[in-house]
Amino acid sequence: MAPSRPTLLFLPLIALLPACTESWPLLGPPEGTALEMGMTDGFSASLILDGLNNPSGVSFSDGGSLTVCDSGNGKVILFAAGEPTDHLTGFPTEYWKVNAEAGTKAFGLGPLSAVWLGDTLAVTNAGAKDGEETVQFYSAAGSASDVEQTNAVAQTTEESADKGEGNLTGMCAAGEDTLFVCGQGFDGKSWLLRATRSTKELVPFASADDAGVAVNSPMQARMWDDDTVLVLYSGAGGKEDGTIVAWNTESGALEGSYTLPGVKDPMGMDRIPGTNDLAVVDNNWSLTEVLPGSLVRVSLPEGDATECVVTPITSELRGPVSCSFGPDGRLYIAQLGTEFDSDKGQVIAVSGF
Known about the structure:
mainly beta, Neuraminidase, five-stranded antiparallel β-sheet, five-stranded mixed β-sheet, globular
């Protein structure tokens, strides 16, 4: 059964603001420069930020500040009064793919996800090795080394290829003390993990394999309601097996599994404001080049049906990896750009939802 479905305005806002000075900026990112990206009627795209290296997670603070993981450069960027600033720097980075025989390396990764818990920014230090990664907590800007953090999660199977949980990504907040985290440590047993801010604990929470869901690579978690968290699984690269799975937030029990016809390698999703639909970005993954990616609108099925309704918006994105709606109603998308491991990465904003 499907889970229950429960233009930036630069106006004189000063009079509406409290007298105290908040720790986040009061103005979000700029309108940006118009892009031609083959959008369907009613949609348009703007370039917000470029010059990034393998950008990943995008999110917003309670005060509306766009927060971006500039993953390959080992930092987190925060928009202050419409301008990008280096909020946290010095995260370790590693190459996701290494060819020992050829000596080639590809896909440099550092922090993959950053989510606000009130005034605290939680970040995954995905540049560490599998089995050593943690969720880290920051109450101020500065160095990534000045940190409180959770434990790491060691291997959960007896398989030699299982080195523990790693490439932690796609976090979402459940209140101000709990985070759900997507783990990419071992494809033989995919985990949604749960982190607790107050206790600094990171633990395995729900396994697709244990629940009989034959798809791996959880990429993004999103709260659906108080009792349900949706998780987007990208599955095998280049195969149309993208899936959304609904988990009970208390027990970790499977509530539903929904296929995404025509979607190959989905990596980011967010609920469209005011609706029961989702925006999903499809990276269309390749190990050798950035292929054209897609943005689609997804409606979860009714009743006992298991196939989502997928409506295309564009197929001309450039390696999209994450997305989040901003307070202005636009969908902010981090994408690799025309090349990975370069300075071609971007954040764009899509209007029209």
